[in-house]
Write a structure and sequence with these properties.
By secondary structure, the chain is mostly beta strands. It is about 10% helix and about 35% strand. The strands form 3 sheets. Strands 2, 3, 4, 5, 6, 8, 9, 10, 11, 14, 15 and 16 form a 12-stranded antiparallel beta sheet that branches.
Length: about 350
């Protein structure tokens, strides 16, 4: 009897030890047909680090500190004369057949030099450019620039194009063989006038980093080569000539309108074209942020009665050379009031 009671106590003790603790949560069984939940997504990988800067590329920027301006003189030399056109239009004739004096042609783009480029940093940190004619009494043209020499505003025509040519640097890092374009506009389409029926312009705008060579003091010399051209051809509609007298209308085969007056006659269309080409070579010091040398040529030729007002460079052949100068250009003198 005692053994039976002892065995019962041992069995109850073992059962109590296996009892689940109170408060434990039991999982709820899924309904039949329900699929298991997908495994939790892994944490997104960390953002990839930016690729290292390509050591074969360089960033070309002007290094102009406040209070330490940079100045260059642009010398311009004509070569081979300066013909405005390879085809001279026949002088107009009067009704009696006599030649009339040819009217003065519209002024083409002004010769932009020699000039001095004076670049400085303002108190706000912006870049400013003054274009001062050498030895003249003309006030300086003033413009604002970006850090790479892009003309933001303030210059027009030939003055703007020459400044763009010698001051503008590439926007992105460049390596040997890389090419980019400049913000030049050599033929202004808006200035052609209604008489000129233009065809499709042909444009090529390419500046290339030809080489990148080391120099003393950790300097690098970036050699840039310039090849820019614009070509435009079209037809010039003739202007209407005044009607002849009624007595000569039949002789000249002029058609009469309802009032009996001879109709104006239009001269035939003529072909006209313009071609501008620019070549150049410059050596830019990457670390110093300035030119060591720059030389180039600009050639502009027109044929027929091309509207010269549309040309944004001087006609003829020009040689350009940029030279660093130590002192800033003096402001143009102002006229003193007479007493």
């Amino acid at each position: 009897m005692k053994q039976s009671v002892f065995g019962l106590v041992v069995a109850l003790s073992l059962t109590a030890c296996k009892e689940e603790p109170r408060g434990k949560m039991e999982p709820i069984p899924r309904p039949p047909g329900m699929k298991d939940a997908p495994p939790p997504a892994e944490a997104a990988p960390a953002a990839a680090a930016e690729p290292p800067v390509d050591p074969s590329k360089v960033v070309l920027r002007w290094k102009i500190a406040q209070g330490a301006p940079t100045s260059y003189r642009l010398d311009i030399e004509r070569s081979g004369g300066a013909p405005a056109s390879t085809e001279e239009a026949a002088p107009p004739k009067s009704a009696k057949g006599k030649e009339k004096p040819a009217p003065v042609a519209a002024a083409t783009a002004a010769l932009p030099g020699p000039v001095t480029y004076f670049m400085e940093r303002t108190d706000s940190g912006d870049y400013r450019l003054r274009v001062v004619p050498v030895g003249g009494n003309v006030d300086a043209d003033t413009a604002t620039l970006s850090e790479r020499g892009f003309v933001l505003d303030g210059l027009q025509g030939a003055t703007r194009n020459t400044a763009t040519l010698v001051l503008e640097l590439p926007r992105d890092p460049v390596g040997t063989g890389d090419a980019w374009s400049l913000g030049t506009e050599l033929i202004l389409m808006e200035a052609l006038g209604p008489q000129f029926q233009a065809g499709q312009p042909e444009r090529s705008n390419r500046v290339k980093l030809a080489s990148l060579t080391p120099a003393d003091g950790g300097e690098q010399v970036a050699t840039l080569e310039y090849n820019i051209s614009e070509k435009l051809a079209g037809k010039v509609r003739g202007k209407e000539e005044p009607p002849t007298s009624p007595a000569r209308a039949e002789e000249e085969d002029a058609e009469a309108d309802e009032s009996g007056r001879p109709r104006p006659r239009a001269t035939p269309e003529t072909s006209a074209s313009a071609e501008v080409s620019i070549t150049g070579r410059g050596e830019f010091l990457v670390k110093a942020g300035r030119w060591r040398s720059w030389e180039g040529t600009v050639t502009s030729v027109t044929k027929g009665a091309f509207p010269t007002a549309a040309l944004q460079v001087p006609t003829g052949a020009l040689k350009l050379r940029l030279t660093a100068v130590e002192s800033a250009p003096a402001p143009a003198p102002t006229a003193q009031p007479q007493q």
